[in-house]
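---------- Forwarded message ----------

FYI, see the Very short patch repair endonuclease record below. Original note from H. follows.
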Amino acid sequence: MADKLTAEQRSWNMSRIRGKNTKPELLVRRLLHAKGYRYRLHGAAGAGKLPGNPDLVFAGKRKVIFVNGCFWHFHDCRVGQHAPKNNADFWEAKRTRTRERDAGQRRQLEAAGWDVLTVWECELKDGPTLETHLVQFLENQRRS
């Protein structure tokens, strides 16, 4: 049976988790780049930063894409609904705040005239469906 991690070990592990240039994000970037799409990274939209620092920004199309980890952003899939047993109240509160923050940033972007797509880590398993979904989002006319 594996030993439980100490608080210091867990803290070190958690500090190694990146927020930018993650494997899921890089996969989406490679897929879109291969399809001929060009984008800016991490909220850069010309003159300033966008709310939430979207992972990919298509300024000319006024579209942004967030690539979210299911656990961290409390997705409704199996991974996102996993509840840590250690320090459960802390994790529940942290993940709930993240979900609420994400929703607020999405509202801000949409109010400013941006179309927003969230790609979940679990969606990366089906490459053809993901590709179709991304291309449809980017090619559909902006809403009025």
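H. also flagged this: DSSP finds four helices and six strands in the chain.
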